[in-house]
Every structure is written in C-alpha cells, then in structure tokens.
Amino acid sequence: MEDLKKVTYLCDICNGPIEHHKDGNGQVYWNKGHNAEPVLDDGRACDTCNAKVVVRSRISGDELTVMKQFVAVLQIMEPENRKALIEYFDVQFVENLQQMVSSEIKRREENPDKYQSVTSDNADYFVQEEDDENL
Ligand SMILES: [Zn+2]
After folding, report:
1. pTM of the model
2. Of 15, 77, 96, 113, which has the maximum CB count within 10 A?
C-alpha cells in the first residue's frame, strides 16, 4: 500500500499543498483533498478552497458563474496571493465589484474625452475636474 504521508498533492485552485487527513492514531488516511467540481471540471481542492469556494459554488447557479470567474483570476496569480485572496473571498463583494467595474467601463465609453488621461497606460498623474470638489 502506498504511504500516503509521503505524498502531498497540490490544490488546483490555490496551488498550495492539500492537507493530510489523519485518523485518531495520527495515521494519514486521505491525502487527495476534495473534488473541485463544479468550479473546476477535473481538479482537486484543499480544505480551505473547498470550504471557501467549492462548497459555496454548489449553492446556486449565479454564484457558480462568479466562482468560476474568481478561480480563473486566481490561475494567473502567485500562489501566496491566491491564498490571501481566497481567505478574504466574498461572493457579494465580487458581485458588487463586477457591477462597479461594468458601470465604470460604461461611463468611460460614454465620456471618452473626460477619462482619456486616467486610462492611458503612460499617464502618471491626472487632473481632477473642478466640479468634482462638490461631491
Ligand atoms: Zn486550495
């Protein structure tokens, strides 16, 4: 039989080590974490990602979309940043953020001149319009 404690798999969501689950005698009886469906079609999740991301993604269809987008964003981040982000992850926050970003994009598309200096990649400052002081 394979010695489970010698093998540590990596979580497909945060890329961190998947915890060894031990019995009352301290013997590792499971080292493969949790099924990451439906967030990932074919993947394993550590205890944290299972609780924070996978389980919650099974609750409703809308949240699943948000969760999948969240996991897609995680894939391009460094592992240590992934862990921190997962700890603070909140579905409502992501939904609010998406709404804010899409309304911001819409506002900029409708007023391209006003936001040009801010959105330019090489801008290192922007000048606030005078009427903004009243806000
Ligand atoms: Zn994980």
Report:
1. 0.64
2. 15
